[in-house]
Structure formats: C-alpha cells, structure tokens
Amino acid sequence: QDSSDDIEDVSLFDADDDVSRRSKKSKIRHPVASFFHLFFRVSAIVVYLLCELLTSSFIACMVTIILLLSCDFWAVKNVTGRLMVGLRWWNQVDDDGRSHWVFEARKVSAQGGKTSSEAESRIFWLGLITCPMIWVIFAFSALFSFKVKWLAVVVMGVVLQGANLYGYIRCKVGSRKNLTSMATNYLGKQFLRQ
User: What transmembrane ranges does the database entry give (predicted)?
Assistant: First the structure.
C-alpha cells in the first residue's frame, strides 16, 4: 500500500518566495513536539560525550544512552514526523504473514495550502539528518580508538536514528521510486550543470 497519490510536498530546506506566506509559515505550531524532536537526540549525544567524565559505570551510561535513543526513535516515528512534516511510516503484517512497509505523506488540504510550517520542517530535517551523521562519526572514532565496548552503543545510535532517516526519506520521495536511481539522476544533473 502506497499513498503517493495527492500527497503534499513537504519541503526540506527550500523557502517560499512569497514573504506574506513565509511569515505565516515560519511560526512553530507544535513547540512541544519540536522540543522533544531535538531533546532526546541531543541528550543521547551529550550523555555519550560526557559519560566517562561523570561516572565510571559503563552499564549506567549504556542504559541511559539506549533509553534516550529508544525514546527518540519512538517520538520521531510516531509523533514528531506526523505533526511537524506530515509524514509517517510503519510495517504492517497481513493475514498471510507477509510484511509490508507503508510510507505515507499528508494529503493536500482542501484549500491547497500546506499545514506544516517552514520552521518546523527545517527543525525536523536538520535534526533527522545531522544526528545520524554524528553517530557515524562516533562509530569511526570508537572503531579506530579500539573502544569496543562503546562500539555497541554507537552502532545502536546509528541503527535507530538511521532507520528513522531512511523511513522519512522514503516517505518524502515516495516509496515507488528507487532511491539509488534517484541519487544517480541527481548527481548526473549536478555534473551536467557544472
């Protein structure tokens, strides 16, 4: 099941040209969702960075980081993605036991206007993209510094935040399109422009 017909185009970073529309769109409509979208992500990173300074207990640090990452995964997947940009994804198992991935975007409203603000969209996508990149950097750091015990925690961060990133990119571009061919076409267009 793919609901890519009549979906709203949720902008990543492009801004509207109309200044009057921008002033209405720049307000944050869901401040609590915006706060928690970044709170769990940033808290997990801060705890990872400061953990060895604050305590010598690896287990306490690991449990705290994994709890924060799990809360982030749940909040982003079930709440903030829907409220802030109108996207959601999930896995559905049918009666035959087959698994189906569903990627949805909010349908265009009757007035034809967007219901998500540009500020919320920027907060959502910046948090969704930058935090997994930070965890990938932590993974290489833990690997090359031979901190094997921290590598498991960092891999958990990459997997949980990477899964949300992948799911929302599939919602944004549509699940019928092949992401590899899209990336190839984009890079080809950029090469031809130069």
Answer: 31-50, 56-76, 123-144, 150-169
The H-or-E segment that residue 123 falls in is helix 118-144
Q: What is residue 102's three-state secondary structure?
A: strand
Phi, psi of 2 (to 5 degrees): -135, 125
Residue among 180, 170, 12 at smallest CA distance from 162:
170
Inside any domain, residue 36: yes
Whether residue 5 is contained in a domain is answered as no
Domain that residue 86 falls in = 29-102+116-187
Continuous segment of H or E residues that includes residue 52: helix 31-54
The H or E element containing residue 138 is: helix 118-144
Residue 2 in any domain: the answer is no
Q: Is residue 19 assigned to a domain?
A: no
Contacting residues for 156 by C-beta, under 8 A, at least 6 apart = 65, 66, 69
Contacts of residue 15, defined as CB under 8 A and 6 or more positions apart, other chains included, come to: 22, 118
Q: What is the pLDDT of residues 27-84, one digit of tens each?
A: 888 999 999 999 999 999 999 999 989 888 999 999 999 999 999 999 999 999 999 9
Separation between Cα atoms, residue 105 and residue 116, nearest integer Å: 12
Domain count of the chain?
1
